């Protein structure tokens, strides 16, 4: 099977400034800034094949989110090679963005003060979807995710589990081939987790969507991933079958 993601010696170093506590600390940092660097991802290499469901695992601060953000093009790598669907993700080319999507469990793509449908209509325009494609994709996903009755509800009035299902709907409306998920079940109760997992398994199996997921929940990994890559302190500690 052809690789849809190829990562070679990928490295990310953050440069940030340290500031002492209080007003004095703030004043000192204006006069003299102390910069530090942190090696978050350290020469990692792996590939993802079309149709795979890959789990990225590792302790807090291991570099999983940083890796995912580079794969989506939200962060520029410091060095190394990255090829996603034949493109360099950081270029964020429009036709490339139509083929990928990302959901971060702790961040929302939906506006909170309006019904989800308003945000979905904006997505329709952003991705240049025809009325028919929009209607078909919306109907199919809303049914699969069980959110048809929630589309007209103000997002801030939905529960965390309901909101995550709406986030997945928004992310998948344009039918991306490749989906990146950063802790999609974080904070959800057992029933909500099972529902999200069931949906992701169906998406991978029936639509053939390639999925790369990070999670601290072994239940997610066991239910979904055929293969895992374990990252520790920015380096790959294991790559193979679950
Ligand atoms: N914007 C930033 N500036 C400086 N350092 C950062 C920044 N973002 C992340 N880091 C550091 O990079 C390292 C990797 O962080 P990252 O968020 O990728 O880890 P993670 O594996 O996703 O962790 P978690 O499981 O806690 O979400 C950590 O040491 C973190 O403190």
TrEMBL record:
<dbReference type="Pfam" id="PF00005">
    <property type="entry name" value="ABC_tran"/>
</dbReference>
<dbReference type="InterPro" id="IPR003439">
    <property type="entry name" value="ABC_transporter-like_ATP-bd"/>
</dbReference>
<dbReference type="InterPro" id="IPR027417">
    <property type="entry name" value="P-loop_NTPase"/>
</dbReference>
<keyword id="KW-0067">ATP-binding</keyword>
<keyword id="KW-0547">Nucleotide-binding</keyword>
<keyword id="KW-0813">Transport</keyword>
<dbReference type="InterPro" id="IPR003593">
    <property type="entry name" value="AAA+_ATPase"/>
</dbReference>
<keyword id="KW-0046">Antibiotic resistance</keyword>
<feature type="domain" description="ABC transporter">
    <location>
        <begin position="25"/>
        <end position="241"/>
    </location>
</feature>
<dbReference type="InterPro" id="IPR050763">
    <property type="entry name" value="ABC_transporter_ATP-binding"/>
</dbReference>
<protein>
    <recommendedName>
        <fullName>ABC transporter domain-containing protein</fullName>
    </recommendedName>
</protein>
